[in-house]
Here is the input.
Amino acid sequence: MNNNVDIEKYFKPDLNKARKRSKQTIEELQFNLSDAHHKIGVDKTYSIHTYGCQGNEADSETMAGILELMGFANSSTEENSDVIIINTCAIRENAENRIWGELGRLKKLKRQNPNLILGLAGCMAQEVNVVDRVMKKYQHVDLVFGTHNIYKLPEYVETAMFSKERVIEVYSQEGDIIENLPKVRNHRFKAWVNIMFGCDEFCTYCIVPYTRGKERSRSKEEIIKEVSELVDQGYKEVTLLGQNVNAYGKDFKDVEYTFGDLLKDLDKVGIERIRFTTSHPHDLDRKTMEAMRDGKHIMPHFHLPVQSGSNPVLKKMNRHYTKESYLKVLNELKEIVPGISITTDIIVGFPTENEEDFFETLDMVDQANFEGAFTFIFSKREGTPAAKFEDDTPEEIKKQRLYLLNEKINDGYLRGNQRFLNQTVKVLVDGVSKHDDQVLAGYSEHNKLVNFRGNRDMIGQIVEVKITQAKTWFLLGEAV
Ligand code: 5AD
Ligand code: SF4
Here is the structure.
């Protein structure tokens, strides 16, 4: 990797450029920390605040890995930190508003400690209006970098620390795939594993294809190597990450190797549990379903975002499927993997969604029998096509729709839990319950939260639990 590129000040993003998909071949490069960067952080500390999805959590683990390789130690309080990085999410306006609030709050800390380096990273940094606002109104932010250049963190920290210049460097388009990135994982037995980056779907409401660039898959060798190393380190569960894992491998030239193949190969690596997120219905194929059926370690849970049950709305969202074709794929999946638990994402109040469309969504929830969902009110994202769609539904109506939808979704959570009453399930024990430290908490194979009494030695183990009560949000049981 060329580590000697001059840092250009004010390297700002451009959503129009980010929209373009180049034909350039993606190369695989290895991360190396130069000697000059090894000792910069000795006797100094950092903290990272993470917002948003699992992709961001995984990125924060990489940032932590890089900073620790530079000698920085993790700080338990932000008051003592020499470097604070806010890893941001741009998916909805309320996520962004919280982050602006946090940046404002950190101004005081910067005044108390002018040597503090405050960095803004992640998806918000990919938006030009965000970078402009930071440059003008948030002078206390020293460092802005995006999702494509995390590996350059050592240079940025060095510049901010020694030349006392602001560093603003955001690439509009993705670069190569960087391997060998160090990581400090947040969990001792569950790990995130990126299998691909970016998204080419361009759902009309979504900013992700602009902030995360074009779809590019990691090589199967690198993924298998990472999962094998995790097994050696005692990890029990991996969650494979991508914006649309079902498109894995579609960008490979000359090789026919897709998500189903990857699942089959990973099933043999020796990891106890394999999960993945997130999926797109129109890329979900039979090979994947069969890999789930045949695999011994692939968990029987599928998060399959539907977004809406109305065909006109799905079309306007650019989702490439109809209510009927979604249900067809779903029913095929349920047939091939009996008992599988299905969860989803749904947006209400998308521009043009009327009452009839919304009832189609409610009907969809009934027919699909979802056992959980993340539900959202549409949020206008500058630069996406849907931001220009006429939207005349009052906010109050949107809130009512969300309320009605959530009632139905909650019934699904309860039904999904009730089907395990009196059964024995396998639970990977995460730790003690948030509400009672005499109680252990973990997730079943179907991804249901289970609480039961047991001893702390069970943490990190897979334990059999007989379910005695089913509540909406969790199951109660006894270790057998
Ligand atoms: N407004 C509301 N929800 C959104 N999502 C993505 N973009 C938006 C938006 N502009 C939701 C989708 C997606 C999930 C990660 O976030 O449901 O599946
Ligand atoms: Fe966004 Fe659609 Fe890509 Fe998911 S598939 S990240 S909703 S554009």
User: Anything to note?
Assistant: Residues 155 and 340 are 47 Å apart (CA to CA).
